[in-house]
Design a protein that fits this description.
52 residues; alpha+beta; two-stranded antiparallel ribbon
Length: 52
């Protein structure tokens, strides 16, 4: 089985983590501002998003 982590650089992983934390911070803000929002799982990214 191929180890997929070997395909990524440390900088790439760090950038991905920064982006994920930024999106999580934004998601938490949207939930605080409107607790009635509906979340949906975005399958391509496997991240939760506010459903429009």
């Amino acid at each position: 089985m191929r180890n997929l982590l070997n395909d990524y650089t440390d900088e790439g992983i760090d950038e991905y983590e920064k982006e994920a934390y930024t999106q999580l911070k934004d998601l938490k803000k949207q939930i605080r501002e409107n607790p009635q929002v509906v979340l949906a799982l975005d399958l391509p990214t496997w991240r939760y998003v506010v459903k429009s």
